[in-house]
């Protein structure tokens, strides 16, 4: 199971409603995410438009997965004068707390069209399995008859 805790998320939402701008503690809107289960894996997608593949870092320590991405300013010289700058720049980070039922050793990552997709398999120990019932040979014969 995928667990997510972000203690400042609600505070940011409240600040955005009251003041009309994102809060200063964390920026979840800069790295929106979807997470769902598809068969025997969890799929997590992050929207990272304008971020190059080499500007993304994925780290895992114990059961905490950290996604860090940097949106850099457009290249230009001294002759460039910005007219409108609404896209946030800088380093953005999200942390996901992975449950013990996920196989953190076999995470696969793919980045295409500004979307980072992580595929996290469900651990073998967490998958449903059939349990054989032991009994004597005479018990087995009686059941078949």
Automatic annotation (TrEMBL):
Listed CDD domains: ACD_sHsps-like
Superkingdom of source: Bacteria
InterPro entries: A-crystallin/Hsp20_dom, HSP20-like_chaperone, Small_HSP
Residue span, SHSP domain: 24-136
Family: Belongs to the small heat shock protein (HSP20) family.
PANTHER family: HEAT-SHOCK PROTEIN 20 FAMILY MEMBER
Protein name: HSP20 family protein
Species this protein is from: Amycolatopsis pretoriensis
């Amino acid at each position: 199971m995928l667990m997510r805790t972000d203690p400042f998320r609600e505070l940011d939402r409240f600040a955005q409603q009251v003041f009309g701008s994102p809060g200063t503690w964390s920026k979840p809107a800069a790295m929106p995410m979807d997470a769902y289960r598809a068969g025997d894996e969890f799929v997590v997608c992050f929207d990272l438009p304008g971020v190059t593949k080499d500007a993304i870092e994925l780290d895992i320590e114990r059961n905490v997965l950290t996604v860090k991405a940097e949106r850099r300013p457009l290249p230009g010289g001294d002759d460039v004068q910005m007219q409108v700058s609404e896209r946030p720049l800088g380093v953005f980070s999200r942390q996901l707390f992975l449950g013990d039922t996920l196989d953190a050793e076999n995470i696969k990552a793919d980045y295409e069209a500004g979307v980072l997709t992580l595929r996290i398999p469900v651990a073998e120990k967490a998958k449903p399995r059939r349990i054989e019932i032991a009994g004597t040979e005479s018990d087995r014969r009686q059941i078949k008859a």
